[in-house]
Design brief:
Chain B: It is a peripheral membrane protein. The complex is a heterodimer of chains A (about 900) and B (about 425). Chain A is of the alpha+beta class and about 900 residues long. Helices cover about 50% and strands about 10% of the residues of chain A. In chain A, the strands form three sheets. A six-stranded mixed β-sheet of chain A has the order 1-2-3-4-8-6, covered by helices on one side. In chain A, strands 11, 12, 13, 14, 15 and 16 form a six-stranded antiparallel β-sheet that branches. The chains are: A alpha+beta (about 900), B alpha+beta (about 425).
Chain lengths: ~900, ~425
């Protein structure tokens, strides 16, 4: 293996590696590190160091981080070649996958999944699944990367991997989003259905995703949108102008104008994507800007596309390679949408210091932008370019002038004259290119230009470039009747020089001879025969073939048969003029910004953009049900400049509010109906979005003080950094007595913790307000109990109940007649409903039509007695006896509500 | 995405290779060498090439080719932008991006590449995060390391990667808290023979050097933000705030960074600070030519033009130049055919002039086109667009930082056609 180090003799290299082996086996950390550094140096230079594998792999569990990292580098490089030995290291990684430190877990997964050894596929699979459920978003991100690695190692795992992808797509962390979409694109880009539910979330997270992830997500969403929304282009530009209004305001105005047509209304999700990607045009990352530009190109209504122009033009200030790609894309765009770039025409002016491929692309764009109004400016600019010392570029400019001349009829003559002037240029390539372009131009309008043909014939002797000579000969032959005097003379000259000419020139000479023979045989018969004879013995078989064919075609003989009659029609048939068009025409069949677009051929793994569907698929697939009641807790006032939420720092604030607003309205019922069990009243509240808190009343006696109501709070960290020192700060009213939970030192991202506290509400439903603080921040929290939670059950007999009730008459009695929902008419149902709103005890009753409940207020211990007497046709008399009259009326309301509702 | 990376020097040696997936033989570069050979000038090598099984995407920087190999569809700009980011990182770590320093720091380079991509997808590209994981080399430490066996790899684990402000390290501390901003504007212009402006625009950049303790939250506002037509921001800038209030609000990265780049609205006429009177002639006979250039001040807002320099790429037939400069020095490089006239400060009383004769290869036809002049210049304490910073405020921290703004105008791609 030493042979692979080519410059050194074998013996020496072996010695050298022996040396390294010794160092690796020494007990000194520094020697090992030095050895690993040298080995990595060898790898970097592309030299083989694989025979050191056993010595290196021993150090995989080293404590020294740098040493360990270098061993990882080595391992990943050579594991594929040394599979058996590589297996020795696996257990180390398996152990590290369980490490409490997220970075160690992540790095273990990174290396494990990079070891391309098929035998460990099941281990990798398991590790990926576990990591995908890790609490740390960083580890989850790593697992998304590992998915792709495993997929390329063993494509059979696809189905299982898709399950993991599906799970990770639901992840709310901005860290994970880009990586999982990347995995999606690589493993199952056709599973569009997995995106539906995550679509809005991805749109909303986009601004905060790291820049590389943004590119991948935007590209995927472009493809997604083309399958899910209807075309915003259908009804023509006029209509497009209005649809923004139609979407935001009422469509009444809209309908007046377009009564017949069904108005196009953009799907709000379509709009969401356009709106949320727009700010990214200001990204410093050129790839991000380009991806937004292509998204607008492929998805936005026509009149909105032009907002990307400025940003694209800005990218032209970037590195040469960036310019190249951006110019290619602008070239494609500018063919269809001149207007987009015309105001920036001057940004495409060529500098003498530009690289040739940049110059050519700028030229292409300038040509695309040319119109009647600006053509004189452009032609003036082109005149400078034609003189360029870069001859390839000068030639390209001449082509460009030709294209302008065909596209804009006003300047055809000017261009032709200019090109004719170039025929006397000293540079051969310039002349040749001019001739070729003039030929093409003349073909489009041959009638008026015999002068130019004559001029070219005159210059013929001085022109040496074969392509140019051939073009002139073809021109003279094709239009020989317009230059009857000159044509035979040119043929005469050619007869003289025939043997010395290049093949293409010879072929055109034969063509010229044949055409002249048919139109002017008197003067050219002999010349033609002479040339045909020369061609007959030419070294090139194409020329011999052509000569034989032409002779049979034009010279009548017994064998020549029927074709001879049509010789003139065959050779002098009117020929369509060549179309001068951009090489970027139709390039937008490829998604802009892609490799395929750049190469103009389909690259491996390219995903086609589908056409817009004629009818939009079901829009509701993107709806996400909201299970939790979400209400925003306002952050403390004092800190003015504190950003509202750390997590969504830069996201679209409006959107968030919108969403949250609509969520909470719809979710109140769901929370009350989900208050399952009899003993729990459940409420959830949420801080901005970094620390979420849910609280509920466990309906247990408070351990700390009997006068307090027990409250359980579940704190969860929904941000992606850990929160420290969570504790309770100031409270209001100041007299409020609270038993606080112990300070929580640290709460990892995505982790949650349940704490219990006690609050003395003093038998009042007034909210308890206090500050919940973290190390950096504080939030004001307000817990407002329902009146039923301020009670605790009291057990008593029916007799005691009646006795106590007797004492609490008059002022202390509140009652109402209610009509119950039929479903609640049974005594079990009544108990259930009452217990759901109040923490009271059931008093066993001897009478079927009576239900009784007893409780005491937590703070002062006053009795609260609830009785319900059923009357006919599901009406009932609800009575509450207690000293606490305010509480009585509130409780009455609550119980009444519970019983009258289904 | 990115499969492999090869670093290739000017003479075509591959001196570093790194593979993020399975190993690809370096023979894949042969396709590239073929194209490079044809292109003559390395800048003319197209950045995207297709080979039978791979796609090659390359950038050319610091006389080096960064050649990446990809196997499937990927946005080419994604790769190009990343490669430039790699080059930027080398620059940041080693002070320059050249073959020499990369070879000298091979292990650090390798460690960096390892962290920057995972499976070919960018992982950590923020310099702040990288520096927490891999320390940049410095002489003192490398001496200490060799003595003690210490390492370059940070033993703290990078927290920045997890934070929602990944560009800023946690726990930054300074005794002197300072925030300096440089507003640098470049004039891109093409002037024609007669001195008329064919094309001119101003591109600006706000470079920042911020050394502040803790987590400061800064706002920078301008007197005349309307001037700004199009801009791009560092990811730290809150875009919404700019949209609504036209102020830059951000938690800055630690150290040097580019806060924003901008383009000045094209409606504004661009002030061209100098005029150039030139006369370059090549004669039909006698194989010689004449050159006469004078530069004078034009719209320079009363400031001094410094660092004035003229660069001319002469046609190949020009063998030598025999010139006299009334101010500064000129050099003519015979191999590259580049004439450089380094003038220095422009004195309005005594305009600098360069004149004399050019001798050409005998018998060669006279050049078709006169070479264009590339002008370099600097004007201190002036943003030519008139942009002015009005104030800088800090929130979130209690100390008072030192603040400062400097302005500078430079010539960008400033070309005079002759």
């Amino acid at each position: 293996k030493g042979m692979l180090i080519p410059t050194r003799p074998r013996l020496f290299s072996v010695c050298r590696n022996e040396d390294l082996k010794e160092m690796l086996e020494s007990s000194k950390e520094s020697l090992k590190l030095e050895a690993m550094k040298r080995i990595v140096g060898l790898i970097a230079k592309g030299k083989n160091a694989s025979e050191l594998f056993p010595a290196v792999v021993k150090n995989v569990a080293s404590k020294n981080i740098e040493l360990k990292k270098l061993v990882y580098v080595y391992l990943v490089r050579y594991a594929e070649e040394q599979q058996d030995l590589a297996l020795l290291s696996i257990s180390t990684f398996q152990r590290a996958l369980k490490d409490p430190n997220q970075f160690i877990r992540a790095s273990a997964l990174r290396v494990l999944s990079s070891i391309r050894v098929p035998i460990i596929v099941p281990i990798m699979m398991l590790a990926i699944k576990e990591a995908a459920a890790d609490l740390s978003p960083y580890v989850r991100k790593t697992s998304a990367h590992a998915i792709q690695k495993l997929f390329s190692l063993d494509a059979d795992q696809k189905e299982q991997l898709i399950e993991v992808i599906e799970k990770l797509l639901k992840d709310k962390s901005t860290l994970v989003a880009g990586s999982v979409v990347m995995a999606f694109e690589e493993v199952c880009p056709d599973r569009i259905d997995l995106i539906h539910k995550n679509y809005r979330k991805l749109c909303n997270l986009l601004v905060d995703v790291e820049e590389w992830g943004q590119v991948v997500i935007i590209s995927m969403l472009t493809r997604y949108a083309r399958t899910q929304f209807t075309s915003p282009w259908k009804e023509g530009a006029m209509f497009d102008e209005n649809n923004e209004k139609a979407f935001y305001e009422s469509d009444s105005e809209e309908k007046k104008g377009h009564t017949e047509e069904k108005p196009y209304i953009m799907d709000p999700d379509h709009r969401l994507l356009l709106r949320n990607t727009k700010p990214l045009l200001q990204s410093r990352n050129t790839a991000v800007v380009m991806s937004v530009a292509q998204l607008y190109w492929h998805l936005a209504p026509k009149h909105e596309v032009s907002i990307v122009t400025k940003s694209l033009v800005r990218l032209l200030r970037s590195h040469r390679e960036v310019q190249y790609i951006v110019l290619q894309n602008i070239a494609t765009m500018s063919i269809q949408r001149k207007g987009m770039f015309e105001p920036f025409m001057k940004s495409f002016y060529v500098r003498s210091t530009d690289a040739t491929h940049i110059k050519t692309l700028k030229l292409e764009i300038l040509t695309n932008l040319a119109n009647e109004a600006n053509i004189s400016t452009i032609l003036r600019e082109f005149q400078t370019y034609v003189k360029s010392q870069d001859k390839a570029f000068a030639a390209a400019t001449i082509q460009a002038i030709g294209r302008c001349a065909t596209n804009i009829s006003e300047v055809t003559d000017t261009c032709l004259n200019g090109l004719v002037l170039l025929l006397s240029n000293r540079d051969e390539t310039v002349v040749a290119e001019s001739v070729v372009v003039i030929k093409k131009l003349l073909q489009t309008q041959p009638t008026q230009h015999s002068e130019i043909i004559k001029h070219m014939a005159k210059l013929f002797d001085n022109i040496t470039v074969p392509m140019a000579r051939a073009s002139i000969l073809w021109l003279i032959g094709e239009y020989c009747e317009r230059v009857p005097k000159i044509a035979p003379d040119v043929l005469r000259k050619m007869a003289k020089s025939f043997t010395a000419e290049e093949d293409i020139v010879k072929l055109q000479t034969v063509n010229l001879a044949a055409k002249l023979y048919l139109t002017n045989s008197k003067q050219t018969k002999l010349l033609t025969q002479y040339i045909l004879n020369l061609g007959k013995y030419d070294q090139n078989y194409d020329i011999r073939d052509r000569t034989r064919f032409i002779r049979q075609l034009i010279v009548p003989s017994e064998k020549s048969g029927a074709l001879n009659k049509y010789a003139r029609r065959i050779l002098l048939a009117p020929k369509p003029a060549p179309v001068l068009e951009s090489s970027f025409k139709d390039r937008d069949r490829f998604q802009l910004g892609t490799l395929s677009h750049s190469l103009n051929s389909k690259a491996t793994g390219y995903q086609e953009l589908s056409d817009w569907p004629a009818v939009a698929p079901d829009q509701s697939v993107r709806n996400v049900e909201i299970i939790e009641a979400v209400k925003e807790w306002t952050p403390t006032v004092g800190k003015t400049k504190q950003p509202k939420s750390d997590d969504k720092f830069y996201s679209d604030d409006e959107d968030e509010k919108e969403e949250e607003g609509s969520d909470s309205s719809g979710s109140e019922d769901s929370s009350s109906s989900s208050s399952e069990g009899l003993f729990m009243y459940f409420t959830m509240q949420m801080f901005s979005s970094c620390l979420a808190a849910k609280y509920h009343f466990p309906r247990q006696p408070c351990l700390y003080q009997p006068s307090m109501v027990a409250v359980q709070v579940i704190l969860s960290n929904s941000s992606d950094h850990s929160l420290e020192e969570i504790h309770i700060g100031d409270r209001s009213p100041a007299s409020l007595s609270i038993h606080c939970f112990n300070t929580i030192e640290r709460l990892e991202p995505e982790a949650s913790v349940t704490v219990s506290m006690g609050i003395d509400f003093s038998d009042s439903t007034q909210a308890a307000n206090f500050q919940l603080c973290t190390k950096e921040d504080q939030f004001s929290v307000s817990i407002q109990p329902a009146v039923g939670e301020l009670l605790m059950p009291s057990s008593m007999t029916e007799q005691d109940f009646c006795k106590e009730q007797g004492k609490l008459q008059g002022m202390n009695e509140t009652s109402a007649t209610i009509t119950m929902e039929t479903a609640n008419a049974s005594s079990q149902a009544i108990s259930k409903q009452v217990l759901s709103v109040a923490n009271v005890g059931v008093v066993s009753s001897s009478q079927n039509n009576f239900s009784r409940f007893a409780g005491r207020t937590v703070s002062s211990g006053a009795l609260v007695l609830v009785s319900l007497e059923l009357k006919e046709s599901s009406t009932a008399l609800l009575t509450i006896n207690t000293e606490k009259t305010v509480m009585a009326s509130m409780l009455l309301r609550d119980i009444k509500q519970a019983l009258t509702q289904a | 995405m990115i499969h492999s990376l090869f670093l290739i020097n000017h003479s075509g040696d591959i001196f570093l290779e790194k593979h993020w997936k399975s190993v690809i033989s370096r023979s894949v570069c042969d396709y590239f060498f073929e194209v490079k050979e044809k292109a003559v000038d390395p800048e003319n090598v197209p950045p995207v090439l297709q080979t039978p099984h791979h796609y090659l995407i390359s950038i050319y920087r610091g006389k080096l080719f960064f050649l990446s190999v990809v196997q499937t569809e990927v946005p080419p700009l994604f790769v190009i932008e990343f490669l430039h980011r790699v080059a930027d990182t080398f620059q940041d770590y080693f002070g320059e991006c050249s073959e020499g320093v990369i070879k000298d720091n091979l292990v650090t380079v390798y460690e960096l590449l390892e962290e920057m991509l995972d499976n070919g997808f960018p992982l950590a590209t923020e310099s702040n995060v990288l520096k927490e994981m891999i320390r940049p080399p410095n002489i003192l430490r490398s001496v200490v390391n060799t003595l003690t066996g210490g390492s370059n790899v940070g033993d703290t684990l990078p927290t920045g990667q997890l934070s929602n402000v990944p560009w800023r390290r946690a726990g930054v501390k300074y005794t002197n808290n300072e925030a300096y901003f440089d507003v640098v504007e470049e004039i891109d212009a093409i002037l024609d023979k007669s001195g008329t402006t064919v094309f001119a625009e101003i591109q600006g950049v706000v470079e920042a050097c911020v050394r502040l303790t803790g987590m400061p939250d800064l706002t920078l506002s301008f007197m005349n933000p309307r001037l700004l037509d199009d801009m791009s921001f560092h990811p730290c800038v809150r875009f919404k705030r700019w949209e609504s209030e036209r102020v830059l609000s951000f938690i800055p990265p630690d150290g040097n960074f580019t806060l924003m780049t901008y383009h000045v609205s094209s409606q504004n006429l661009v002030a061209i600070p100098v005029y150039v009177k030139q006369n370059i002639n090549f004669f039909e006979t006698g194989s010689c030519g004449r050159l006469d250039i004078t530069i004078g001040p034009k719209q320079n807002m009363g400031k001094t033009v410094e660092g004035l320099m003229v660069t001319i790429h002469m046609p190949k037939v020009v063998l030598s130049a025999n010139l006299t400069a009334t101010q500064g020095n000129y050099t003519y490089d015979l191999t590259t055919k580049v004439l450089v006239w380094d003038i220095g400060k422009l004195n309005p009383q005594k305009l600098p002039n360069l004149r004399g004769s050019l001798s050409m290869q005998a018998g060669a036809p006279k050049p078709e086109e006169n070479p264009s002049l590339n002008i370099d210049l600097k004007i201190q304490q002036l943003a030519i667009s008139g942009l002015k910073v009005s104030r800088l405020d800090m929130y979130g921290e209690k100390y008072k930082p030192f603040k400062g703004v400097k302005y500078l105008t430079k010539a960008g791609k400033f070309q005079v056609r002759t």
